[in-house]
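User: My instructor asked us to take a sequence, write out its structure as tokens, and then describe one feature of it. I'm not sure where to start. Here is the sequence I was given:
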Amino acid sequence: MLRATQIRPSVSPSHQTVQLSRLGSAAADELHILWPASTGTNNLVTDICSGASEFNAIILPLDAAFETRLDAARRFWRALNGRPPGPAYGALPKQTKTRHILNLRVHDGRREGATYREIAEVLLSREAIAPRDWRDHHLRHKVRAILRRADRLVAGGYRDLLFYPHSRSRKPDR
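Assistant: Let's start with the prediction itself. The structure tokens for your sequence are:
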């Protein structure tokens, strides 16, 4: 949720004043505005006087959710200017998604009774691995490391993905 307000006019030539009517199909009352966006409906709370029809600033408190609000303000500004929203803050990078998918596929394979060598052959290797080579094969160690990560995810570590890029275990600064 973003908080919009009216501040005294700036001397900057790029300073914008936003008319509430400019928000188009936004549902608005005097203090609470919902505007549709590509990522869903966004909330904008205004503290402008009753009857005022414009604002020119967004308030961003310096709290634990600052980065999230900053991204919401950025997406709002881009939407006002007819630009695409850009990459979402907190979206998992593609490489991380791919790694988590592999972790869970390895976990599922092991849970279904596949051996480490079978998992390595199916998910990590382009060719079969001879039994005599398996004992010293580099994929043996990789499968074991992936299974350790998968076990942590399945044991509750997946919840950290819900808070990404924030960590649930990080203590707030005081």
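For the description part of your assignment, you could build on this observation: The two ends are 24 Å apart (CA to CA). Try explaining in your own words what that tells you about the chain.
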